[in-house]
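seq/struct pair 1
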Amino acid sequence: MSSGRLRRYPASGLLWRYGETIRAGYLDHRTANPWRLNAIITWPRAILQCYFFVLLGASSDRSRLAFAFVGAVVLSLTLPTIVSIGSVPMSDKWMGTFHRIRLGQLPAFTVFALRAVPYLLDALIMMALCALAVGTLTGQLVLAVKLLALAPVLMLLAATSAAAGLAVASAAIPNKADVLLGNTMMYLIVAAGGVIVPPGRIPWLDTIGQFLPIRNGLLAVRALLDGGPWAAHLLAEIGVGVAWALLGVLGYRLHIGLSRRRGLDAFA
């Protein structure tokens, strides 16, 4: 009877698996990132980093303060979604549990993406704290409120950057270089993403920026704040996010394929 029920309600079984995977991710995240640790270390560090980038962007021209503020606040999304998110697949390497994912019914990237949902929420909380705290320190509190009103767009940016973070983590697993590659990716976004200075100053770096998360979405955010055209930038951000997600899918499939054909298990 249970097999008939599964055939009749396949979506319910799939949704149950999704829900349980998200719940497992939440429990792992809560254990690794207790709120006291966030309040004492993680959030203050993010606020100080955001404040530093705002001051850096406005150091040569005070009129760029608002520009740098928006970019630095949006950049704070990447701390959980690109740097910290690497611990999601890396935990299976540390615990030696990736073989269970290989034998499961959900693709590896799907499992990691669902377990990473708490990092998206963490990114929004961190960005809100940075916006309000740094906005108060720099006199940009009104702009901070306007920026936070674009929460749906910011959630999309969190999702696209998380896709890139998981893709980067797939390349880092063999050498346990998730923190190194995650930080490299974040600073590449700073350099090529038009975060604290306008893009277009260095052509080759600007070309790289077109393929990075945050870059196009940040242009959409700036356009929304200024009342300009934003849809094309947002669509470009979605396209970049999908491309990074596909790279992540291929990366984890490659690890699984190598382990099955050659016995080379990067998660071992």
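seq/struct pair 2
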Amino acid sequence: LEDLDPQVAAVLRRTANTHARAPLVQNTQEHQVLGHLEKARQELPNYYAGHDKEFPKRFFRFLQDYLLDFHSAGGITQPHALFACGLNGVGKSYLVELVVKKLLVGAGINYVACDLGTMSDPADPELGRFLKREAFKPNPTVIVCNELQNLRNKDDEGKAFPHPAANALKALFDGTLKEKEIPTAALFFPFNPMPGRIPTMSPNPDVTTVEHVQKIHRNLFGSPSAIAREIGFMFDDQLARQMTFRACTVEPFSLEDFRQLVTLTARPVLEHTLKDMRVYPFFTRAMVDQYLIPELVSPMEQGRGIKEELSLEIRKMFLQVKPYLNNAELLCRDEVELYFDYDKATQKVLVHVLAHDADGRNPIRLHPIEITPVHKNHPSRLTPREKLSPLEMHGAIQCFSEAFVMARFGIPFEVLRADWV
């Protein structure tokens, strides 16, 4: 705690005092905020804290940088989307629990928490508690959404089954929050919009992410999302078993589209401030150590600038792809598609660049680019194993594709190791 900048507590206190329109705890004392941070740190799992003795300093250094980012105009003044990505158990929901439910509440910041990860069953008592306690909380300063992919309009058998929370969310976004009551921050932890199939997130493995997006939008606002339709997921008999996304650039998948996608369910609330929003996807340690290419891991293990090094290496990877794109004589950049596959024999991720010829009709499959994922017996792993499982390989492709696209669009992102959270 000695490394925690005193300004952090001041920012938290100022944030609480600035937004007097919400029922916030006034005049939060600095020692109270620091005490709350210390309590949150003590409640962290021993696995994380015990793994790295430097954990408290790094975690609070992150909080310091992140919270001071809210310093402008005396508090939280811009919507922030926290994009948590990764396989089950890497710490996405825990980030919500710790940073939001402990730190924001401890700072006296009024928030609404909508975690649909525990609400897929209408009989779940947590759903009822959410509807009563959260959905109609007046004038929240911060809205938090997690596991939005569970907001679907059909049950596992394909029968019509709107999610019970859909109406509550619609009321929250459309009715409760009038223009003068728009929250000053919105933290969203949505599903991963990049790969096509997410078997760990859907009871039906044939349901694609783009369908999830459309269903969420249809549930809340009555029509499919044009953004979801335009992302460009491709599935046919030949590609059905490949995780795929389109490397569209300006059109149709622009940075603005990305921002709108991650705030899809809150567009009526946030559309006027989207241009000011910053996007923070979070990579946890499991992704960095276990999935990404070795060039990304080495500089991190040496303790150098994590965000800068990761962004640099991903951009280097894109430069390896770029010559193939240029040689294809494309009509426009969004005629290029990238397919990620896994070669079991060599345990390498293959990036297939699929372009089109000059008339834009005939596909040209270019030479695949090999990426060697970090092996499970890498020294940084706590429990070495010989091979990456198919699910873990899914995570490798998933995480790299996200990082690739974010670097491609110049989207700012943080790398958050799980032993920080």
